[in-house]
Amino acid sequence: MKKLFATLILTMIILTAIGYSYAYSNSGIHINSNCDIEFTTVTTTDNEIEKDVANVHAQITPDGNTIQTYISNAYPCYQAHITYTIQNTGNKPTHFTNTTITNPNPEALEITTTNHTCTWLQPGETTEGTTTVHILQPAKQNEQYTFQIKIGVKCQTEYPRTIGFWKHQFASYLCKSGKPQIDADTLENYLDQISTSPIYEFNGSRKNKFQQALNILEMPRRPTMEDKLKAQLLALWLNYVAGWTGGYKYKGYTAEQIIQGSETALHNHQPNNIYEYWKNMCDGFNNLGGW
Amino acid sequence: MRRYRRNNPINKTIGISFLLLMLALSITGYSYSHWQETIYIQGTIKTGYWKLVIDSEKLLVPVGPGIGFNDTHPIYYHVTPDNQSLIAECQNVDYNWTIAIGLLIKNTGTIPLKLKNVEITFNITDTTNFTITTHYYGPFPPGTNFNFPYWDGIKFEEVPPAGDSPSPIPLDPNDHAITWTTINYNGTQPLNITITATPIDDPYP
């Protein structure tokens, strides 16, 4: 009886967890608003100058996920413009993955819209877009037409890792102690990609490559500012090739910009204070994840 | 002792429960890491319509002492049930025969339109001996008194009244326009003909 009861409780917990997780992934539940994106404003205009014949009206649904647009008394050549603002109301970077227009009557309606694909939105950041509805000549009188635009958004749930994280990965394979989170093939692939940089070169066996990387990350006993910069820059490179820097900015700089700045400084043998500046930039970016 | 432990049903229950818990946590983690959302822009478009109809009609002929036009040149006319055309059956059309067709035209739709012209067609192929002239008046928004001098009480001799406008005549919904078309025959052979007068529109804008 006790076993049955325990199993029942456990099953309930499991089902709750699955349901909760599913609901969360479909933005049905918001945990501390980690990942959320909403329409915040919408305005409409049209191409009528002399006479106000057709009307366009748009409103955002209370959940912020949909703009509903109504156009009445439309006629061929009429164009309505719906201008909207999308805001990242969560606290993780998000990016637009796709935009799909469903227009069952292309002979009567021409729908064009801003393509946000690949645009990143930082927490609190907004972006504007415009959808235009153009009524074409073959449109029938006294007819009702519909359209739908789907804008796919994905949240960046990954985050940059610190230099300590990356030291641990290489050290785990070299010292056989601790458990790495990234498999060796992937790590080696990361280093091969980073070898295209003019600053780093990883060669030899996998073990050699891992040792070379670990040496850079751990730095000599008495490191110069150049050593410190190279160590933080390598960690940033690793975050970059791992795809964990997308959507993040540190002091307004993307990972690519910081990498480029750091490499330029190293390549031009700039003074220590410049090295220190870029070292701090790399360090700051690597710590954006907060742990 | 070892065998007893392995087959202990409590251990089995714990094992299965542990596996289920792992599975649930995996799904939770996967789901979180794949957070994605779709936002929508939905639209409903209702088109309006435009319709030009004959709201009233007149067919004027010369009158006066000694002429007797209706007796010698009988005319029977009507507007089609859809109010789109006026059809006039004219008998004994002979030299210098002239009539005036007046149409009070209305846009009964929800979209503005333009009155382009009044199309006059005959049931005969050779129309070279007919001279057709149309004059356009308007637009007359609702509430405008267009009766004088364009419509009420107008006589054949007063056609066309002064104050016409070049076509096309823009007509907002519920606006009226008036057209006066004179048709003159200068042939010598008497004819029996059917004339159809149809207002033609141009869509907005």
Description:
The complex is a heterodimer of chains A (291) and B (205). Chain A folds into two domains: 37-155, Immunoglobulin-like; 163-286, no CATH class. Helices cover 36% and strands 25% of the residues of chain A. Chain A contains seven helices and nine strands. In chain A, the strands form three sheets. A four-stranded antiparallel sheet of chain A has the order 1-4-8-6, with no helix packed on it. Chain A has a three-stranded antiparallel sheet with strand order 7-5-9, with no helix packed on it. In chain A, helix 2 (163-175) crosses helix 4 and helix 5 (225-241) runs parallel beside helix 7. The longest helix of chain A is centred in the first third of the chain and has 24 residues, at 2-25. Chain B is of the alpha+beta class and 205 residues long. Chain B has two domains: 2-33; 52-203, no CATH class. A five-stranded antiparallel sheet of chain B has the order 3-4-10-6-8, with no helix packed on it. Chain B has helices at residues 2-6, 9-33, 69-72, 147-150, and strands at 36-47, 52-60, 75-79, 86-93, 97-107, 113-122, 130-140, 169-171, 176-185, 191-203. Helices cover 19% and strands 45% of the residues of chain B. Chains A and B meet through helix 1, strand 1, strand 3, strand 4 and strand 6 of A and helix 2 and strand 1 of B.
